[in-house]
Design a protein that fits this description.
With 264 residues, this protein is α/β, with parallel strands linked by helices. The chain has two domains: 192 residues, 2-enoyl-CoA Hydratase, Chain A, domain 1 (Alpha-Beta Complex), CATH 3.90.226; 60 residues. Helices cover 49% and strands 15% of the residues. The protein has eleven helices and nine strands. Strands 1-2-3-4-6-9 form a six-stranded mixed sheet, with helices on both faces. Helix 2 links the parallel strand 3 and strand 4. Helix 1 runs parallel beside helix 2, helix 4 crosses helix 5 and helix 8 packs antiparallel against helix 9. The longest helix has 20 residues. It is globular. The two termini are 36 Å apart.
């Protein structure tokens, strides 16, 4: 049984966690997220928002899944979970997590797999796995390190304590903090703006950043020659360049909101 809801709002796919009261991560939540990303790709959506119903984004995994579990069973369980993380990171469109209340453990790891994170005021964050003698089984520790550095990531994961949205914004873990009653509206507006943009270029940028994080900037320089240069043959780039040349840069920038990018 899926514990998510999928909705398409124009070019934006919205996946909502619906496993009250704490939106604990279960097989149903993970399969629902995977199906949501797959459906968005098949439908040609150009951005995605991951959000949650109820008083909090997620309290983490349902720990009953861990009781009496062998190492082999744990491996199978998290191979499936890591496939979902990979699907979110590899989505060919920007993915925004809109979080509120509490964003703990597996919930935080889903947010970290997203490209952008917008949080409601008052949201609390934590990787609490150490409290039960575990580590971040969906890659939270090293994805935190990508955003805020290894020392801060180790502090967060070793302690298991909760942190404020302000601290996470200051440490570059999340991007924006908004009033709680505006979270969904602002997340959707951000996604819609990105969806209207040069999504082929956004997809290339995602691949370049991921490649650089894995292999370093110098190797990414070589990868760029294959991954980025096809943009020259896209309708979007040639159309925008033509407009800038014909209108002049000042008029082009002034009227940029009117430029139509088709994602082609």
């Amino acid at each position: 049984m899926s514990h998510t809801q999928y909705e398409a709002i124009g070019d934006v796919a919205v996946v909502t966690l619906t496993n009250p009261p704490a939106n604990l991560f279960t097989a149903g939540v993970m399969s629902g997220l995977a199906e949501g990303v797959k459906r968005a790709r098949e439908e040609g959506r150009r951005a995605m928002v991951i959000q949650a119903d109820g008083p909090l984004f997620s309290g983490g995994a349902d720990v009953s899944l861990f009781h009496g579990t062998s190492a082999a069973q744990g491996r199978d369980l998290f191979e499936e979970g890591l496939a979902v993380i990979g699907a979110i990171e590899d989505a060919p469109f920007p993915v925004i997590s809109a979080v509120h209340g509490m964003c703990l453990a597996a919930g935080l790891e889903i947010a970290l797999a997203s490209d952008l994170v917008i949080a409601a005021e008052g949201t609390r964050f934590a990787q609490v796995e150490a409290l039960i003698g575990a580590t971040t089984f969906l890659g939270g520790a090293y994805r935190l390190a990508e955003r805020c550095g290894s020392a801060r990531a180790l502090e967060i994961t070793f302690s298991g304590q909760q942190y404020t949205a302000e601290a996470f914004e200051r440490w570059n873990v999340i991007n924006r903090i908004v009033p709680a009653d505006e979270l969904r509206e602002q997340a959707l507006a951000w996604a819609q703006k990105l969806a209207k943009g040069p999504t082929q270029a956004h997809a290339a940028t995602k691949r370049l950043v991921q490649y650089s994080l894995m292999y370093g900037p110098r190797q990414a320089d070589r990868y760029l020659l294959d991954a980025a240069t096809p943009l020259f043959e896209t309708r979007d780039m040639q159309h925008a360049v033509g407009l800038m040349l014909s209108e002049g840069s000042r008029a082009f920038l002034k009227n940029h909101d009117d430029v139509v990018f088709e994602g082609k």
